[in-house]
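dumping this here before i forget
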Amino acid sequence: MKPTLRPRVKVCCIKSREEAQIAIEAGASAVGFVGAMPTGPGPIDDGLIAEIARTVPPPVATFLLTSRQSVSGIVEHHRRVHTSVIQIVDVLLEGTHDDLRRQLPGVKLVQVIHVAGAASIDQAVAVSSLVDALLLDSGRPDLPVKVLGGTGRPHDWNISRSIREVVDIPVFLAGGLRPENVREALDTVQPFGIDLCSGVRSDGKLDQAKLTAFMKAAGI
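structure:
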């Protein structure tokens, strides 16, 4: 997909109404809520996700990060929270993306690709016709206990750029983005959007000063 002049920003790991409001006031186009995960920071109860998501005004998108790997499990998870977008952080093992679309009409699908090498390009191309966007992250789903995000670690942005160049859908860039490196990341990958979590937090809480610095560095 062609580069985007002004990247959208998704602030992830939102834990409260106050954090959602801080993100929106800073210019976020989307906020993300982390459901149950094998590891990593940020998971909150589904009831709290639903409560916060109801307070987010359109057109700000609400993302549910789900680690479930079956269509039935993802559908059941979404029906607990009613977000506008589902971010699938692992591979589907039961059912298809088309099944998800049929069962959840109107809900956007974003597939995470954990960029670990050139093989990630083929993975991205294979799924790109099935979803609305890709999110390129730095997880390690190959570990005995999977790491599916929230690593605070960048990956090879040149591979991410290659993915962005060969797919025809929007690409979000995630993984270790901070005020100090976001400009380089944007210049290298030129993604549709960027996704941030740990790089704008202090002691686990969304840091308004860090978020403001991030937005300034990103040109938002």
